[in-house]
Every structure is written in C-alpha cells, then in structure tokens.
Specification:
- It is a single chain.
- This protein is of the alpha+beta class and 339 residues long.
- 18% of the residues lie in helices and 32% in strands.
- The chain is built from five helices and 20 strands.
- Helix 3 packs antiparallel against helix 4 (281-291).
- The termini are far apart.
Length: 339
C-alpha cells in the first residue's frame, strides 16, 4: 500500500512492464516526489540498498506526464493495471489492488496537473513554464506539451519564427495596411530558424519595422525596434538573389529581397533617413548605375554601322566602318552581280 514518507513523498511497491509489450511485470519500488518534479523507481527501497546502488533505475519528469488512467482494458489479464502516458510513450504499472491503483492514478494526475491561478504571481510559482530564447511578454502563443506550459513566438505554418524583441506594438485591431506608416510594401524575407524565404508585408514606422503575413493581418509576425537597427545596406550574402538588402541588429541580420532595384534603394534610403543612420556610398552609386545600365538604354541604330549581306537579306555589323557611302554602294552592287 502506498504511503507518505517524512519528506512528503508518495512511496510504495508497484509492478512495472519494463520491456514494452512483453507482458512480464517486475516488482519495483516507486517514489513520487512532487517537490523535485520526478516519478522514479528503484530495485528496492533505497534505505535497504547499499549506498552505491541507491540510484534510480529510471524515472519520468512530472511535466512530461500527460495522462494517467485505468489500463485494465488494454491488459485484461492484469489486475489493477494502469498506464502513465508521457512524451509519446506509455508505462504500464500494476498495483496490489484497485484501491491502491486509484490512489496512484489520482496522485500522479494531481502532481502533473497544471492549474491556472487568477493572479500572475501565483502562476509563476506553481506552473512549470518553458520559454523559447528571447520571448517577450506579448509576441508569443501558449501551448501545453507533456504537461509543460510552453511560450512560443507567434509563427505561421511555414515555420517563419517571429523575431523576438524588447519592443512592444499594439495594432488596436487595425489591419496592417491601415496603420500609420512612413513606407509600406511587400518583400521576401529570410526566416530566422529554417532560413526559408517567404513573402511578407512590411510597415515602417518611427519606432519599428513591422512585418505581417499579409496586408490584412492584424498582428505582426515580428518587429525590429528602431533602437536595435545598427546598419542598413545592400547585401552580397546571397549572390543568387537580386535586389537584396540587409538590416543589421545586435541580435541577427535580416535579409530582405525587393521586387526591383529601385524599390530596394528606396527602402534603404528611407530607413536610413528615418532612423538617422549613416548612408552607404554603395547605395547612391548603385542607384546611379541602375539608371545608366546599358541594358535599360535605347539601342542607337543610327550610330551603329551595318551592311546588307546578299542573298539572305540579313543585317549585320560592318567590318569596315570607315568606308564611305559611295564605296559601300559599289560593294553591294558587285556582290549582287556576282550572286
């Protein structure tokens, strides 16, 4: 029969199926320690074991336990059998009788149950929580995994993890395109964890650079505070991506790809001007080069010497651009007669 020891731990013998689906149960000594958050078992009562053999055979952290229930239907030939579900696994145990079984089930469920008090102070004391690095008090969602309250940054199904920051932003329920902004527009951003590229809607304000999943989204996927921005410049990190610029912060570097070169230069200049950053010389020179790109200029046919080759009637560049119009005409007539 289970009992409470002097340290407030529930102790007692149970039979455990150590090898899954073997149907063989071995008698072990179990200790439920709620203060340390552990459910462990030993070969025998540790007080009866030598000092060098008092280590537990195995154990389960209480925050990993999701449910403890009656398992006599799964093992109809095993009396007083119950199961502990944890971290996607199962542990089948057998008590001495149904009364002991119910006592163990109730104690384990109570020990792994998460209660939500009304006050935030008591929540911090009583609830086991796990925080992803850098999660702020606002930009996260709460999930329960294995009995643990997990605070995870807001993210979409494409695994674009939110950039955590110390800044806060409240849209007051307004969609992204209605927010007061200095500049807005779509661009492709590299994700923070999986480094995938996704199209986002960017909003530049006096205090933050926000990015949303769509133009009508009301909550940003992430934000870059003005105080974190150290440098904005054209990026050469990914040579296969055109119109790419980067926003350098003390936490990470954001890589953003615009639809065209003019838009890239515009974003860099606006951010530098708004946040009073030193402009990069390469930005201005790059903008000038874009306007002088031969590929974008009109092709001057008048200054390009050509001759007509008979009999196919194809135009090509002249081998001797210094010939006079008279000599060219004679050459054409000669070529025509020979043909």
């Amino acid at each position: 029969m289970p009992y409470m020891d002097k340290r407030g731990r529930l102790c007692g013998f149970l039979n455990i199926e150590e090898k899954e689906n073997s149907g063989r149960f071995s008698r072990r000594y179990f200790i439920l320690n709620t203060k340390e958050g552990k459910f462990q078992y030993f070969m025998d009562n540790p007080l009866n074991l030598p000092h060098n053999n008092r280590t537990p055979v195995d154990g389960i952290p209480l925050q990993f336990i999701s449910k403890v229930s009656d398992a006599r239907k799964q093992h109809p030939k095993v009396d007083s059998c119950f199961v502990v579900n944890f971290a996607g696994k199962t542990m089948f145990l057998q008590a001495d009788d149904s009364k002991d079984m119910r006592m163990w089930i109730e104690a384990l469920n109570d020990a792994s149950r998460i209660t939500v008090p009304t006050s935030m102070e008591s929540t911090k004391e009583r609830v086991n929580e796990w925080h992803q690095d850098g999660v702020s008090d606002r930009g996260y969602k709460t999930e329960i995994a294995g009995g643990v309250v997990c605070k995870i940054p807001i993210q979409t199904s494409d695994d674009d993890v939110t950039e955590s920051s110390e800044g806060e932003f409240d849209s007051h329920g307004e969609p992204a395109y209605r927010l007061p902004a200095i500049k807005t527009g779509f661009a492709v951003k590299q994700g923070g964890m999986r480094k995938n590229w996704k199209r986002r809607y960017f909003v530049l304000t006096e205090q933050n650079i926000l990015y949303f999943s769509s133009k009508k989204a009301k909550e940003p996927l992430g934000l870059i505070p003005r105080t974190d921005v150290q440098e904005v410049k054209i990026s050469t990190k990914h040579p296969n991506r055109d119109n790419l610029y980067e926003i350098v912060t003390h936490k990470r570097t954001f890589y953003i790809q615009c639809d065209n070169p003019e838009e890239m230069v515009s974003w860099i200049e606006v951010i530098q001007k708004t946040y009073e950053l030193e402009p990069e010389k390469s930005v201005q020179s790059s903008g000038d080069q874009l306007m002088k790109d031969p590929a974008t200029e009109a092709f001057d046919m008048e200054n390009f010497p050509v001759t007509k080759v008979y009999p196919h009637g194809e135009w090509c560049a002249s081998d001797d651009a210094a010939k006079t119009d008279k000599d060219t005409t004679r050459q054409k007539k000669k070529s025509w007669l020979l043909w």
